[in-house]
Each structure stands twice: as structure tokens, then as C-alpha cells.
Inverse folding.
């Protein structure tokens, strides 16, 4: 009896990939790890049955057309704006991700923790204070910040991450408001209000909505005008949720006391670099009320190990025919 050929799975972003996840994959597939730029990847995909990506590659019509054998694309993310789902469906390619894996995702706290790291750095002026201290300057009065205790935290999107952030907010003795048409739960101590009311009542706004046509540009000029003067904003969701021109104007006018962003619009299309003249990066170089990190919210060794092993097992189930229909998008 002829043995079924092993699927060829290409890992297009293998740097730092979990050893345990590699072991799961190599038990049933031929795994090829390729660190390649766009054109090199297009050339290499011809013989691949499966593709693993993070956020460094955009899976679109061009890429799918270059991989006629492709049956599966896997990404250890909940957001899927780097994958053209309609094009994948046309090509008969199943997309495996972490979207909807609520029970597993409840064990992954990295992005919620990074949200608080950004907020504390923003309200306590930590980057500037660290720089001054390293230069031997001890000017405490220059870095007077705010206490979070007693402030109102407005959460835009009360899903898994929004709920985690709310829990941390309680530990900081903050009042919690939440805007979500379908919150993950009705927790005691949370005031659920329409978005304009949350924006008007919050001292700190934290964004945790998924990107879709309804949320693209959700926080625009009108939304920023609804916020009280001196509000802080943190976005660890997707850059497209914010109108970046409106955000910049809100910072320049003082409507926002500060903003901290882990994401920017179109960052996936930019690969591993952003334009040096990007308006928000340009502003942040000379103003300490805007902090930007390169989408590292989920990038802890713990989170990446857990998610890569989970996804590797999901891939194994797909190829071995175990509950295959459960893994379609």
C-alpha cells in the first residue's frame, strides 16, 4: 500500500519559532523554513501545500496565485487584516488562526499587559525620565505625571482583551466604562454606555475592537471632539481603527494629553520598516506625549510559544482530518 505523501509546509517567518511547535509539525509534514522577502517568497511557494505567517507578509491574490498547491494558510493571530479572506476562499485555501479560540486565548495576557505598560509609560513620562537619568540629570519636577487611581477608564470594545484590561483597571482603582454593542459579558462594576458617552466620560481611552468595515476609522475627528480635553489614548488593537490625521490634530491641539500606540495604519504592507517621514513617527521624535512601539503587544516568549504550539496542533488536525471543518474561516 502506497504511503500518502507528506504535505510540504512553508514557514515564512521562522525566526524564534517554538521548538515544540516545530516538533509537532515535523511529525507529519516536511517543514521548510524560509526567511524571504516578498519576491523570493512568491518564487519559493510553488511547491508548498501549506504556509505559516505572522504579520510580516500579506497573503493576497498575487501570493495565492503563485502557490497552486496551497490548501492552508496559518497565522497565530486573531486579527486577519494581513490575509485576503475572499481571495483565499476563491483559491480553496483554508485559513487557520486564533480567531474565536476563546478558551485558549484567555490564557494569553501579553497584549493586555502591554496596554498597561504603555499607559504607565505615558502618564508617568517614563521614556523621557529614563533618558534624563542615563545622562546624569535628576530633574524630578520635569516629569510630574498623573495617578491612575480615581480616573475613569473607557474601554472601546469589551471582548477578551477589553475585559482583561478592565480587570487591571480595577486594580488601579479606576472607574470603568465600556462601549460595545455585544460585550463578552455583563460584569459587575462596569458601566456599559454608547461610544459617545464613553468617550465623553473617560480620562483614559483604551481601544480593543477587531478591525472590520464598521470599525475602520472608528475614532475620527468627531470621536476626538467628543473626548474631554486632556484625555489619554492607548491603542493596541489595529492602526486602522484610528484616523491618524485626526489623532495628530488632537495631540497638537491639546485635546489629547497623550497617546500610546502599538499599531499603525498599513503597517503590514510596510514589511519590517515604516516610512521615515510617517507623520506620527515624525511627531513622536520631538514630542513626549506620543509613544509608539512596533506591534509588540503579543510578542512575549511565553505568548508566542503557546500560540505557535496551539496553531501547530491545529494544523496537524487539519491535515490529519480531525475536525477539519472546525478550522475554516
Amino acid at each position: 500500500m502506497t504511503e500518502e505523501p507528506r504535505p510540504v509546509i512553508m514557514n515564512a517567518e521562522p525566526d524564534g519559532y517554538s521548538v515544540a511547535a516545530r516538533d509537532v509539525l515535523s511529525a507529519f509534514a516536511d517543514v521548510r523554513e524560509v526567511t524571504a522577502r516578498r519576491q523570493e517568497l512568491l518564487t519559493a511557494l510553488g511547491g508548498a501545500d501549506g504556509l505559516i505567517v505572522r504579520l510580516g507578509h500579506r497573503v493576497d491574490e498575487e501570493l495565492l496565485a503563485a502557490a497552486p498547491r496551497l490548501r492552508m494558510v496559518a497565522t497565530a493571530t486573531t486579527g486577519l487584516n494581513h490575509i485576503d479572506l475572499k481571495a483565499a476562499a476563491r483559491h480553496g485555501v483554508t485559513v487557520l488562526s486564533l480567531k474565536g479560540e476563546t478558551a485558549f486565548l484567555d490564557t494569553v495576557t501579553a497584549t493586555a499587559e502591554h496596554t498597561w505598560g504603555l499607559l504607565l509609560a505615558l502618564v508617568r513620562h517614563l521614556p523621557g525620565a529614563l533618558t534624563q537619568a542615563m545622562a546624569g540629570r535628576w530633574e524630578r519636577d520635569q516629569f510630574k505625571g498623573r495617578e491612575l487611581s480615581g480616573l475613569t477608564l473607557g474601554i472601546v470594545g469589551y471582548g477578551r482583551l477589553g475585559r482583561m484590561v478592565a480587570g487591571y483597571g480595577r486594580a488601579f482603582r479606576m472607574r470603568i466604562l465600556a462601549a460595545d454593542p455585544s460585550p463578552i459579558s455583563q460584569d459587575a462594576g462596569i458601566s456599559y454606555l454608547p461610544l459617545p458617552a464613553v468617550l465623553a466620560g473617560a480620562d483614559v481611552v483604551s481601544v480593543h475592537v477587531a478591525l472590520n468595515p464598521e470599525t475602520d476609522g472608528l475614532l475620527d475627528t468627531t470621536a476626538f471632539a467628543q473626548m474631554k480635553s486632556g484625555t489619554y489614548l492607548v491603542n493596541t488593537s489595529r492602526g486602522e481603527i484610528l484616523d491618524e490625521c485626526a489623532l495628530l490634530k488632537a495631540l497638537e491641539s491639546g485635546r489629547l494629553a497623550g497617546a500610546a500606540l502599538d499599531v499603525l495604519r498599513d503597517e503590514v504592507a510596510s514589511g519590517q520598516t515604516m516610512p521615515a517621514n510617517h507623520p506620527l513617527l515624525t511627531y513622536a521624535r520631538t514630542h513626549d506625549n506620543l509613544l509608539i512601539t512596533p506591534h509588540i503587544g503579543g510578542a512575549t516568549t511565553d505568548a508566542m510559544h503557546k500560540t505557535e504550539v496551539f496553531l501547530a496542533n491545529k494544523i496537524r488536525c487539519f491535515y490529519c482530518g480531525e475536525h477539519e471543518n472546525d478550522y475554516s474561516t
